[in-house]
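Record type: monomer structure entry
Structure origin: computed from sequence
Chain ID: A
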Amino acid sequence: MTTDYHVRVHRSDEDLPREQQLAWRLAEVAVDPVEVEPEVVEMIINRIIDNASVAAASLTRTPVSAARQQALDHAVSVSGDGATVFGCPNERRTSPEWAAWANGVAVRELDYHDTFLAAEYSHPGDNIPPILAVAQHTGRDGAALVRGLATGYEIQIDLVRAISLHKHKIDHVAHLGPSAAAGIGTMLGLSTETIYQAIGQALHTTTATRQSRKGEISTWKAHAPAFAGKMAVEAVDRAMRGETSPSPIYEGEDGVIAWLLDGKKGAYDVPLPSPGEAKRGILDSYTKEHSAEYQAQAWIDLARKLGTQKPELRDPANIESIVLHTSHHTHYVIGSGANDPQKYDPNASRETLDHSIPYIFAVALQDGAWHHVDSYLPSRAARPDTVELWHKITTAEDAEWTRRYHSEDPNEKAFGGRVEITLTDGSTVVDEIAVADAHPLGARPFAREDYIRKFRMLAEPVLEPEEIERFLELVQRLPELTAAEVGCLNIVAAFGVLASAPAPKGLF
């Protein structure tokens, strides 16, 4: 039975024992030897496939190339075998923290992998690159990797359920550093004490402001979670050497809650698995069919349906206004409520357009589809009829959709809303959608064959057919893999693909 652990700020003179600190409780979850349930194993396999899909599609993009070159400019550390880098041959290794960095950027670049939304936002698949990199470096087998990933997902999702970071303009990767450190600790069989210290260090080094997702969004958006994964690997290394971390990191009077979150009166109830309870958090997360912010997924599905059923809606001459009635988050983060003029700018970056639901709805409505590259091309964003339609679209917060967004009932939780389209002839079109088609409760929930189809679609332009089959055969045997096979859990680009990518030079 899940237990809610109460967390509040403590004065220094209260002398909070470490065994009563949230970081210690998270470490206790990590060391619990409970078996990973079969359906959790299957979903972990799905998400490794999903990560490889989006990494393949981003191999030649500039931020990914830069991160890859940084990683390859570092030698393998002396105490292990090193870790693979997406796109590179399996024998080309680098130090695990740099592999976590390069692979983390590749996974996040297109904003196209799994998501979990509650009090906070997250892409829990960001746990996979650092945990897998350490598995390869330390020679762990598939069963150990599965246990580590189950913990990483569980810890991040539990923190996301309870503690809002964005409310205080702190970036959501502050929940990722601790979860990745905990997952690595589970996989390596570390002690509660060691994992506790690693969690504290990982949190301390991964708190940053949300300006990375505001205004003119930069390429750092993809690097931020990779940085958190890199910091988690380094935190574990320090903790294994006996070094300690700020404590109590969450509850201290000068700690994260007191000064970065809800202040000295801040308190939360974090749901954690009880001792012996299976780690099932991953089953509450969901992936993306479309390369866009998760809150845009359902809107893309609704827009492409409406545009197909009523082609006249694609012509801005027929449209007076389009209002998307939706949740607080969608309105204020990716909607007109953000008050970001860049969200209506045809010259905006891909990262900014990805966070503009007016743009996304306009393109999906006109095209009846969404493409991870074509839908973001500068020529597509600048098309005059699209710009005209785009500027007629606004969002509005709706209390009921906000309530459903925050609902803890999975049958009620929703990420969509209601659209009201007013035509120039005075008539209206009204429709709504609660969850994306690919959501577990959607019209076409994603299953293994969908993950594989997504992988094939994104990998075929950059991987040889035999490499696609090799990876799929290997990953679907995950719990049985030997350490040597885990070392090959990578995607190798076809000859010439990486040579065509930018190879920027820097300090290293």
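Annotation 1: Residues 142-162 form the longest helix (21 residues).
Annotation 2: Residues 6 and 316 are 52 Å apart (CA to CA).
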